[in-house]
Amino acid sequence: MAKIITENFKVETTKETFSTFDSPNSSIAADFLSGLEAYVNQTSGVALTSSERSDIQAIVETQLNTYTPENSYYIMGSSVDKPNVITNTQYEKREFQRRVIFGNKISNSDIRYMFYKNAWTTGTVYQGYDDKVDYTTQAALNTNVVTVRNTEGDYDVFRCLEANGSTNVETGIVNKESTAEPTFAGIEPDSYEHITEADGYIWKYLFTVRAGEDAIFGTSDSLPLPYPSYGNAEVIASTKEEISQIIIEDTVTNLFTNFIFGEAGDAAKASDVGFQSIEQSITDSNISDITVSATPKDGFLLYGASDSYKEMYLLQKKSGANKTILYDILSSVTIPGAELKITLKIFASDGNVATNYSNDTFQLVPKIHVTRSTSTGTPCVAYGVIDQFGTLKSIQFMERGSEYKYANATLGLPSPLVNSYTPSEAAQLRCVLSPKGGHGSDPINELGMSRLSVITNFTGEDVLIPDANTYTKVGLVKNPTFTDSILPTQFDNRSSIVIQGDVTGTAISGHYVQQNITLGTVAETITARIHESVYSVSNDVTTIYLVDYYGDFQSTFQNGIIFIKANLSTTTASTLTINNASTNVTYGKYSPYSGQVLHFVDFDPIQRLASRKEKIKFIFDF
User: Fold this and answer.
1) Domain residue ranges of the chain, discontinuous segments joined by +
2) For 67-104, how does the pLDDT look when each residue is reduced to its tens digit (9 = 90+)?
3) What contacts 398, CB < 8 A, 6 or more positions away?
4) Sheet hosting strand 574-578, strand order edge to edge
5) pLDDT in tens, 111-127
6) How far is CA 153 from CA 119, 147, 215, in A?
7) What is the reported pTM?
């Protein structure tokens, strides 16, 4: 019994995590209020007062937060020193939370979905997208998805739809190596496909990653998905569930030997026919009779029976324009006595204007029948390409169709072949369907993005990020609480004591502050560590900033003497005095030990400076 956890499970887990970084309740409440206000004004002509607006929004936000509570995430810096290497234990997580120094709130603008970088490389054999291939591994995706660095330093992302390769004109051997780099400039504006004729590859453009985004969120092997578009908006708007490719799994060799109308030099010209004339039907203004000719070759004759070429397409390539027209052949007549000429009846209403045809290239190509999944979708229109030996080599498209969930394809057989083969004997074809929604509609699922990059910056330019001393740990904490019930975007969690005069020579960074407190019959010692001391000349006071001020005591600093020690084991101490604890002592607002530590790392001490910025980046792989 096979049991498979699909990439959808990992991606959905990643999506759920990503969504918890969003805080939409206030926006939802504001939108509701705007709608309500417009309704009240329209129906009763009464405008809501500012007090009513405030009350209504508060009620809605309260209900939303009750039934769909929002989450908050912070990346926090902790621990001025590194007494040991951290381990994944309850003790270490508590120590991290006990010693928090500062932190930044994380929003969904600070997080990105990530996918693997895979630079297009000439000479590589890539694989066309196949819905029967497991693309959950990086190795599999690397055979099909490439990144191309453009002239602006950005990354254009392409998916290989078909890897047809190039054919040796003498041997017929196909070289599957990719030799022509796909470019955004070369894409077709409606389908966002890029056909590289030199190597026969067809690429689908998905989106572009800006160099600036890569610099912020990228890693050596990964790139961030564009935010907030989650792809390319134009591509997403144009996507459809289509036929990605039709694979020839088996076919009769040289099946179309007697249908090589052009020069037998290569596949590009094997189906060529020359334009001779065109006439508008006198009985139907939508139908024209077009006469084409084949290239003379030794032993080659046209089939003389009527409708011998009916089960084929006439393909017209417009001269000087990137446009191809495919005509369904209604009937065919081989002209008796004429040299290799056929008259084909096609749907065309401009048969009386020969110049619309006389300068163009024509081919007579095999017809491919593709079933439909729905009655409302656009049908797929496909045709076959034969080589100079008459073997069906690839399937090309005029229209890949839409709303495809399931499809089968069969080779149309002209009447001279019907008595020798059934369609399934002539060729075994398999339709490859695009991902749900179409290529590029949902890059997160299509590329199996189960990685997230979360970043923040600690800089001395920010008022609430200390620009002195060190920190040795950072961690991602979910749903911490704060003593004022406000979720700050940034916080300095140090406590502080204000002392009259310049005492910076006594309150030295790295020393300890202690105060002996008696609570009833219980005596205890409050301990904290000096982070920095700052003297204000204008106010003639020194602010002593403290860390590690939570521990095995319950008291807070009171009026009276405090002791300054170089270390906790010494009995030698200097003294300072707190004159008014209620106004001269403040504490950080992060509630100690609150929140869940989801991820934390340690490192050698990083010195905080006013001129320095540290970028903290976490990569989570689900």
Assistant:
1) 71-239+434-484+597-622, 249-430, 494-587
2) 777 789 999 999 999 888 889 999 999 999 999 999 99
3) 324, 326, 381, 382, 383
4) 574-578, 560-565, 512-519, 522-536, 541-547, 495-500, 585-586
5) 999 999 999 999 999 99
6) 13, 12, 11
7) 0.85
